[in-house]
Each structure stands twice: as C-alpha cells, then as structure tokens.
Write a structure and sequence with these properties.
17 helices; 82% helix; globular
Amino acid sequence: MEKKLLSGLFWVLLANLLVKPFWILGVEVGVQNAVGNEAYGFYYAIFSFSYIFNILLDLGITNFNTRNIAQHPQLIGKHLSGILGIKICLLGLYLAVTFTVGLLMGYGSDEFRLLVLLCLCQFLNSLILYLRSNFEGLLLFKWDSLLSVLDRVLMILICGMLLWGPRLSIFKLHFSIYHFVYAQLVAYGATALLAFTVIARKAKFRRLRWDWRFFLVILRKSAPFALLVLLMASYNRIDPILLRQLATDADAGVYAGAFRLLDALTMVAYLVSVPLLPVFSRICREGESVAEVVRLVFWPMMIFAVGISLCCTFGAEPLMGLLYHERCMLYVPVFRILIFGIIPIGLTYIFGTLLTAGGHLRQLNLFAAASLLLNVVVNLLLIPHYGAVGSACASLAAQSLMAVTQMILSVRLFRLPVAIFRLPRPSDFRRVVSILRENNKN
C-alpha cells in the first residue's frame, strides 16, 4: 500500500510538472501574443470573475468525497449517484449568483457571451476534480495521473494546431480569444466524459439520486472550507476585474502577462507543501511540537522563494522579452512587483497549512477577509493613477498581510520558538520521513 501510494503521488506530480508549465508558458503566452493585450485582458478579467465564484460548484464536496470513499469504498455507487445530482443543482446556484453579480457590475452582451462559456468551463473542471476524487479514494492512481493532465494535453494539441497551423500553411484561420475558450470546452468535456465512463462502470452507476439531507450534511461540514476558498480566490483573482472596471482591457492584459510566470512558480511552491497537511495533522493529533517540521520546510521554501524573486527581478527585461514579442517593456515594472509575491505565498503554504491542520479555520477566514478588504482598498486608490502597477502593489500587500498574520498566529498558538528560523539538522529530515511512513501505513 505504501509503495502504491507514493508511486501514485510521484506520477501525478511528475505529470503536472511536465505538462502544466508548457501550458502556462507556451500555449497561454502564444495565445496572448496572437490576440493582443486588449483581447486577452478582456478574457482574463471575465475568467477571473468566473473563477471567484467557482467554490459554489463544489462547497468542499471533493475533499469530503476523497476521504469518505477511501474509508468506505463500498459506498461509491450510492455517493456517485447522489453527488452528481448535487453538482447539477450547484451549477444552477453558480450561474444565478455569477450572472446576478455580473448584471450589478454593468456587464453587457459581449461580457455575458464570454461569461457563459467560461462558466461552463468552470463547471466541467469542477466535475473533473470530483470524478478524480473517486479514483483517488479507490487508490486508482494511474487513472488519476492521466486525468490530472489529460485536459491540458488536449488543449495544447488543439491550441497548438489553431495557433501554428496557419503559419505552416496547413489551413487559414484568424485566431481569436473564442477559439481559445472553445478549445478549453472541448478538452474539459472529453476529459469529464472519459472520467465518468470509467468510474460509472466501477461504481455500477444507474441513475441520479436526489437526497437533500445528504446535501445538507455535506454543506454543514464543508462550509468553513468553502468560505476560506472563496475569500482566498477573491483576493487572488480580483485584481484584473478591478483593472478592467477602473482602467482598460489592455491594463488587465498586461497584468495577466506579468502574473503568468508567478502562477507557474507558485505551482512549484505548492508541490513542496504537498506532504505538509498529513504530517501536521498527525503531529497535532498526538499533541507533539511541530517546531522541527516547520524549521525543516521553512528554509527550503524561503531559499527557493527569495532566490527566484531576486533572479527574476534582475532578469525581468530579458524574461518578458522572451515571452512577449510586442511591447514587452510594459510588463516589466508590473512583473518586478508581482514576483515578490512568491515569498508570502510560500509562507502561506507553510503556516496556512499548519493552521488548517490545527482546525483554526475561523482565524484563517478572518485573515482572508481582511486581505480581501486591503486588496480592494489599495486597488481603488492606486489603479486610477498607476494602472496595472498599482494593482500589482495591491496584490503583494494582500498576500503579505495574509502570510504575516498566519505566521504570527502560528508562532503564538503552537508556541514556536525563534529557533525554527535556523537551518534544519539531518535528524529533522529523518523525523519527517518516519511520520510520512506511519501516515501512509494508517
């Protein structure tokens, strides 16, 4: 069991590291270069708007399902038929809330045309994550590895053909941002269909089941997690929305281009933090000190984050010139501010995970709400004068507030000594390996 679990985790992480950076730095960059900053900024603002309310499509169901199916695999047929019905209901709630807020923000026909398509993409992506949770619960890691990257592989193939086909004289096509969205719909739809077909056979799925009591039980248990995800998604994605409202689509496009490399590097920081939640959870349950583990992960994360941010700051001009052919200097000042966000993001992956493992969700939600408020206020003050640069400052301020408050609370609640900031010892590595082995056995 331990070998199977670690092997599955290895292949999932490897597949994502191989495919997703190419998607972010290859295809997405190619799309933005092809359609221009204004069109891509329009798309990115609407995409960010649809992403903020994405939590309404899940409400913590995916995490609940992973744990539940792992513990009770015999319930997969019953839960699959019930939760699929719930997901359909949540789609109606998601569309109602998203379109209502869009109307209040003054969206017109152009915005709603794109918003409808992106909402469908968000639903299909959420459905894929839920279906994957069944494979994870059944320990079918090979299928989970395939499904974790299949949608991106299909998008790379479709977008690559649409972007570079005309250049190779294969066919004639004027690439637009809608081609990019249609490619996502096809890729998500094909991946969801494959995932459902396989898991339906294993679960002996027959029909949808509507069980409102089951839905209310899940909602009650997952509500704090759902609120946290909503607040964090808001302060991470609200910047291009405010840019489009207070400045121009082109400013939103510049912000999206500068943010892209940070987004790719954040994935690396996330992969470093993957084992932290089970390790912290086990230590908290046994009432032991987490200081040694915090020190062990703090230094690698900070060396990576500080090193990357400094290198990218000094190399901002050639980096942006390599990625964007047109007016690349527009991205440089925004990128130089945004890239330092990798430092508070890295701290959040450590101390936010620790507070989650300790069950301190109320404090995390308060911090996330304060960070969102700070982000909005700073954006409102700076965007009219500084455009995308002001929005980058707002993003960095919100990320920093979240990280610092989490770190201070963690030190106080878990009584972390100042010694956690010194270099780790070899014995610390052996301790974490032993905890991981015990956790996998259990």
